[in-house]
Amino acid sequence: MGKIYHLIKEVARLIANHSIGNGIRKIFFKISGVKIGKKVFVNQGLVIVDNGKKHMVILEDYVTLAPRITIITRSSPYNIHPSLRKEDLPIKEGKVIIGEGSWIGTNVTILPNVKIGKCCIIGANSLVTKDIPDYSIAFGIPAKPIRNLKDGNNKPK
Ligand SMILES: CC(C)(COP(=O)(O)OP(=O)(O)OC[C@H]1O[C@@H](n2cnc3c(N)ncnc32)[C@H](O)[C@@H]1OP(=O)(O)O)[C@@H](O)C(=O)NCCC(=O)NCCS
User: Fold this and answer.
1) What is the pTM of this model?
2) How far is CA 89 from CA 32, 36, 53, 105, 141, in A?
3) Span 38-95, pLDDT tens digits
4) Of the candidates 44, 42, 10, the residue with the CA atom closest to the CA atom of residue 23
5) Quick one: 153 exposed, middle or buried, by C-beta within 10 A (0-12, 13-18, 19+)?
6) Atom 3 in ligand 1: which residue has the minimum CA distance?
7) pLDDT tens figures, 129-154
């Protein structure tokens, strides 16, 4: 990735996160390489850590992101101590896809190579380490599906 593109991406994200309003935020996140579908709502404080490639984060139609979400598509220490070899480290990389109609609660962190299915709800403060099946309500560290929105048993107890 060229240095100019990297600079544009970083500036676009900075502007996005200092913008009032979903519409402006989405424009700048799109410029920074995020793929965003129709009727998506991006709240304040979205942090994306990536490798600079385009469309590593995909927000499908009707996705809602609550405030302060972190999405990581590349996890690798840039500055490791010389006594450690990169091959020995748990470096992870992969797209994060949030499926159509899903709602991600506040303070959620999503790790690389995760697909959250269609129409899921991810509870506040969760850490999503693995794929989440369609229509799941999932939460926790790590996030686990606890109910399915299609099983007719969705009322809180
Ligand atoms: C995940 C969520 C939708 C579940 O709602 P619910 O189905 O009504 O669940 P309940 O409130 O009945 O809670 C059921 C159990 O799960 C626990 N729980 C609920 N949400 C949790 C979460 N995010 N993390 C850990 N545990 C959670 C409750 O403490 C309760 O535990 P108990 O059975 O031991 O008492 C909701 O708790 C949540 O996290 N919503 C996101 C809120 C948010 O971020 N809003 C942003 C505004 S845009």
Assistant:
1) 0.92
2) 28, 32, 22, 30, 22
3) 999 999 999 999 877 899 999 999 999 999 999 999 987 777 788 888 777 888 899 9
4) 42
5) exposed
6) 123
7) 999 999 999 999 999 999 999 887 66
112, two tokens: 């690389």
The total number of residues shown for the chain amounts to 157
- Nearest ligand 1 atom to the CA of 105 is 44
Would the CB of 105 count as within 6 Å of ligand 1? yes
Q: Which domains does the chain have, with CATH numbers?
A: 35-77+87-148 (2.160.10.10)
DSSP string, 26-53: HHHHHHTT-EE-TT-EE-TT-EEE--S-
Ligand 1 contacts CB of residue 125 (under 6 A): yes
Give catalytic status of residue 6 as yes or no.
no
**Residue 124 Cβ < 6 Å to ligand 1:** yes
CB atoms within 10 A of CB 2: 8
